[in-house]
Amino acid sequence: MGRSRASYYSILKQINKVANSALSLKKICNSIAKSAAKAVQANGCRILSFNPQKEYLITIGAYGLSDIYLKKGPLDVHKSLPDILDGKVVFIANAAKDERVQYPKVALAQGISSILGIPVLEKGEAIGEIRIYTREPRQFSEADRSFLLSVADICAVIFERAELHQLLEQDYKASEKRRKSSRVSSLPATTLRPTSFAHPSEEDFAKLLDFYCIEWLYEPRSFPLRWEGDKIAEMFTPDFYLPELDLYIELTTLKQNLLTEKNRKLRQLRALYPEVNIRLLNKSDFLKLLAKYGYGPLGEAKVEGVDRVLYSHAKIQRRVRTLARHISRDYTGQRLVLVGILKGVVCFMADLMQHLSLPVTLDFMAISYYGSDGQVVKITRDLDSSITGQHVLMVEDIVDTGMTLNYILSHLSAHNPASLRVCTLLDKRARRLVNVPLDYVGFEVPDEFVVGYGLDYKGEYRNLPFIGILHPELIKGTKPR
Ligand code: 5GP
Description:
It is built from eleven helices and 21 strands. By secondary structure, the chain is α+β, with helices and mostly antiparallel strands. The protein binds guanosine-5'-monophosphate.
């Protein structure tokens, strides 16, 4: 039986009141989930937001769903009701048998039959969802859908407000840090981070992962460890999941006496779920990890002046593998000479060549710049072997104005290679002065000075495993410009 218009109206009024209250984002969304589920006579509801990379769904509020259902594993936006990404309403009549449901077995075990997914749209683009769950198979009326679309609009405003709040807070913290001329470790917050952490050390860990552009999910899965009859008697929920590494992480920066208990649970988890990759990080592991990435008390000097990370190590590796695949395909059946300019290209060259499925040889040149503006290029080390009649691929770290590459290409062409192409990891197109042909490009970078993964500033930073934006004025002892 459907509700009357007046009844929907009064529930919407109530939801609006909560949305406009001083409660936390989580509490507001829990309350809305409850009102929405009750309004359409459903058994459960949850309100979800996309993560910043729009790859996963994060629960912000829920009602009527068990913990095991809520934490059944990472919810992939492309596998779980994927049409919502395109802003469509999705109805699932039988959750246990529909391929648009990512965990049909869990839905079956938890007695969930029908699911209705409503997109939360911001300026026409999906940024999250409302999901309604029922135990009995059932349909939803037009009035139900229209009511839920209005609730989704309210959620969009709540998300936007929370995001703005977060942005202002980060902006304030960043400007405070800049004022003190120390390193800035904030990300540009373009998407809502709705996670509420159980412990401050978890929040620190999330910030570290954000800084290094490492994707993370907080407590996405609970692992049942012990059953009493049909009932789960013990569960374990690791703190983080890192999808790029397919790794669960449990932090133990708390009291060491909890460690024994956690180790026991971990052993049990590994025995029951051997396919799951999990690591326990204690305080010293955590500090070592921070130091490895130049963050925290042990590694402060390593990334001094690096404002933010543009490309994480994992992202660079993925892109390099893709470039290598394209190059191997284009040169199938041929031999290739890779030519690099020292020293910036060392990391890129070393990684790229390992993924080429072709016979390759290597050669390097070295150059120096002179002239009043430092724009005139001089070759200080030429090629070891002749490239006449060979297929040559010029491998570059970064193309900025294009002057260097232009000079080198004319030098190499004079040796009459069979072909000459260019592969650059970074393309700073905004600063181009000479039009040089680029055949393979890793990333187009903004007009910023970048370091890491071979790229230097005054000879340093080449060993960073990622690429970050450097602000030399943030380096201690440097006068602000
Ligand atoms: P171009 O001749 O294209 O202006 O400059 C190319 C060279 O300038 C690169 O090979 C690199 O050595 C240097 N360069 C240009 N932009 C950057 C940058 O953002 N970071 C670093 N480390 N070097 C850069």
